[in-house]
Amino acid sequence: MQDAMSSTPQYTESSHGLLLASRYFIILQDEKSDSALELMDQYQANNNAKIIILANPEDALALHQLSQAFKQACIGTYAIVCGDEYFLWQIKNKLLDYGLVSAEILLIKTPSPNKQIYCVHCFHLFQSSADKFCDCPQCHTSLFIRSHFSERLGAYMAVCANAEQIEEQTT
Ligand SMILES: [Zn+2]
Questions:
Q1: pTM to 2 decimal places
Q2: Smallest Cα–Cα separation from 108: which of 23, 42, 47, 22?
Q3: Distance (Å, rounded) from C-alpha 84 to C-alpha 94?
Q4: Which domain does 140 fall in, by range?
Q5: Ligand 1: distance of its center to the CA of 131 in Å?
Q6: Ligand 1 mean position, distance from CA 109 (Å)
Q7: Is the pLDDT reported for residue 169 higher than 60?
Q8: How far apart are CA 117 and CA 129, in angstroms?
Q9: For residue 129, how far is its CA from the centre of ligand 1 (angstroms)?
């Protein structure tokens, strides 16, 4: 069994037939993405679904409104979150703070490669679209992005690229 806390996360491709909740909040990063269009198509006519477009997961006012909406929501409300990986985990961790549990949150990832990276050298969290290698914007270390993912941080662990090569040679 995979370690849920440190392995690469899995996402759903589409919400078709996945959830049967009494009420849905659908939180979209970009209403023009294919997945978002599909979700809107599926839920727009559903009186039990509320579609929320939240382009910036750090928008304090929008997040406050979201937290209020969840406070007023009845039990059995599910959240469907659609966006890039950075967005998904920022929002998921907010929703957990609002009292939802993981099973009530469905993450749908758009094709964008944007994600959050955690530099293990200086503990800096930053966004990147890099696949394997990038430089830490804070300590300037050349980093290798590992597949290990922290759900708590919503970030991939990145280690010194050279150290990783040495590790690979010796194991
Ligand atoms: Zn760093």
A1: 0.85
A2: 42
A3: 16
A4: 115-170
A5: 17
A6: 26
A7: no
A8: 10
A9: 16
